[in-house]
Amino acid sequence: MTMMKQFFKQSETFIGLGAAFFFLLIFFCVWMTAYDGVNDRIDQLKIGFVNEDKQMGLVIEKEMEKNIPFDIKIYQTIESAQKDMNQRKLDMVMQVPKGFSSEIQEKGRTDLKYFINQANASLAKQLMDVTANTITQSVNENVYMYKQQLILSKVPEQMTTVISSKELAQSLTKNIESALQSLSIQSVQPSVEKTNHVDGFAATMVPMMIVLASFVGSMIMSLNVHMASIKLKPSYSKWRILLARIVINAGVALLLTVISLVLMEAFNIELQRTFIETGVFQLLVYFSFLSLTQMFVVLFGPGGMLFNILVLSLQLVTSGVIVPKVMLSNFYQSVGSVLPATYAADGYYTVIFGGEKLALNMMILLLISLVSVVIVIIKVAFQKSSAGVLREKVSVSQ
Description:
ABC2_TM, abc type-2 transporter like fold, elongated, 398 residues, alpha/beta, membrane, T7SS_ABC-Transporter, 5-stranded mixed beta sheet, ABC-type transporter activity
């Protein structure tokens, strides 16, 4: 009991208890509010539609626009649609191939083509898989009716040319109608191609894993480096300490980049970008995380960890790894647009799965790093140097 009392006499005990409480509170509040109403924003997901068939294709296009609860964008060529999908402007591309109607008439069956982007949030990929099957089922129903109408429209004319009795022709037509009811409805099969696909479930978790691990590591490192800098203040100027912190951040970012590349190679994660480009991107990711977490600690001291915990939670829900960014509210989309994890996750999708936006992500990560460092410099500029004060006291005493 005495030992328990001694623990509660220490301020660090209460800081630890407070951290546990605020960690739970922040995560609970952020995640529950961020994911609230996600199902209501399913219409923000985008599907590209390419129609190369001018008969049944037009019917399918109208049905898509009327019944599918997604944003449908019409493209003239499959190449332009796939280009936008590689830039993650589309979640899926659907193609009605040329000769779709003629194959149904001649062979009785054909394929609808779907291209689902795997460099995307988990929820979006699952929804597109389900959507492909749902669309195919709906198309099959339309195709079934189309085949019936096509055959029945020709039967009376053919019968009357062969059979002189119109009554007999009508009777035979009814028999044929009855027979048509037993036709198979599965005339169209889905042909799904998963673009930017990588084998193995583990690779799909890399964007989330790196964002989570590297940001938490940055939080802990920034706090401990800040505590070390407080101890060094009496002996060194504030600018030397700040310069040393920035150099340490850059050095650690470089070291983590090398380690990450080695680990990716060790676990057979194939890179879709060059080794150097991937390395530079990872360097900017780590440095932006370290710069951002350092900024909050410099501005608010150890209390800045509460802001870092808040930012960690915000980044996990807004980065687009679990739920697509477009399905979040406007507030959380705006918040995510200024946080580095959004561009880190997007860039890792490009590195691991493929895409065309890595350069833009790198530029924004660099900008976030620079803004964070500039804010820290401004804050330090208004601080009084402890080393200078100590020298003044020494000279006065002498």
